[in-house]
Amino acid sequence: MKSYLTVEDILQRKHFEKVEIAAGKEGLHHHVKWVHIVEVTNIGKLLKGNELILSTAVAWKEKKELFISILQQLIKSNAAGLCIEIGTYTSVIPHEIITMANKAQFPIILILKEVPFVEITQDIHTLLINRQYDMLASLEKHSQVLNKMLLSMNHYDEILKVIYEDVQAQIILTFNNQENHFFPEIGDVKKSILLKAIETERSAILSKYSIVSAPIELLGEKYAELLIISQDRDLIEFDQLILDRTANALAQFFIRELFVEEKRRVEETEWVNCWLDGEETKASIMENLAYYMPTVSPKGAFVCIYQQEEQKKIINLTYFKLYFRSILEQRGFSFLAIEKHHSVILIIINERQSTDWKKRVNEAISKLLESELERGRVESKPMIGVGKYVENLEKVSDSYQTAIETVKIKKSMADPANSYFYDDLHIFRVISILNRQLDLQEIVMEYLEPVISYDFNHNGKLMDTLKAYLACNGSKKETAQKLFIVRQTLYHRLEKLEQLLGTDFMTHEKRLAIEFMVMSHEFILASNQEFSGIKKA
């Protein structure tokens, strides 16, 4: 079904039996959306594009400059063509007009026999309305065919075949991983030409290719793009509407395939558990990766733990993994995932250079937390811990242990949002180890008990002052500004700290010890451990 009319189609109608094409023969393929009778000189603002103009030329008669102005307005407005009744008001088309129209491929048709314009408009408008009705019927039929196919189809080529039969133009499906699929299949040289045309000619004013496109989105993320590209005809609204419906059908097919794929991944759970526990050899790891993830080329790996509060559970785990997978794949990662104790444990495999892996992971996590999934489906912000990066896949168990340690440490930190990475925890890793192996609380009290007791008994701010003074490297001016207090108040507090900690508390070795104990004190407080031994004065 041809859903559009061209100037050439209209010239086949009965009212155009006696016409002459004076200029712009190469533009006879222009689409016609409507027919207008124009007898005024200022017409640019009256047109929306693709109108076929009928005129007796009474507005300009033999005034060449006025005729040129009108032609320029028509070309700029993307009119389909100009039909002029010859005889009553004009008999000759100036050479300049012919040259201008030929250059712009703008058809000028001379009507040699007098015909009532109202009969032409009635005929063409009736034809256009019927074509519009046929187009809607065709779109409905197209949608029904696609819906029926989705129940049993096995490959997206079946959908591409349907749209090709409707539009009779080259179909290209481009995926985010730079893979391109052509229907019908063509040679490599022509593929290269068309891909270059897509990149360079979309913005061209007069492109020799006509291109329409529609994104294919899965779970709010762009997964692929569907394009129609033609060199033989201009693509119109019907092509775009067909394309949009086909893109929706492809999105449904791909999401179904991804859900099936995700269910298949459940089989991976037992093997992934063994890998996390360090029970897999390099040979078995590579063998299983080749089976479960045949296209992956690992350059390293790390473990990420995504954990909700104990009483809460991730709603629709399959949906979560599909969404996070789409985010990570765009940034060069693939992953295997299992669920344990309200946590999702992901072995994330890096397929790019390792120099910027943390930056890419940060981007992915930020995207996940900002998503509609997180805002609407998960009530509280999750705890996320990323273990150390390992290039040797046999060492994934080490990354797993450090990811567990990261989550534990972040739960005990006053500000757990400062980083997701084990590598960035620095001194807190040492504090965590000491807290497990020693009575860290007792050591902290050995250094800080006088200050803690003073604040407890006098509702003081000495601990806050000490922390700020250390952070500002002993700068009194910066400390006062940071605490929003005057210098005299700060001097009074520092004198009190010297009485409690000793006048040498800012000497190098003692300062390092006190600073370490301040951080340990915050760590223990955040762990909800109660301090003892604080006596009232």
From TrEMBL:
Top-rank taxon, per record: Bacteria
Residues of the PucR C-terminal helix-turn-helix domain: 462-516
Domain Purine catabolism PurC-like intervals: 9-128
This protein's name: Purine catabolism regulator
Organism: Cytobacillus purgationiresistens
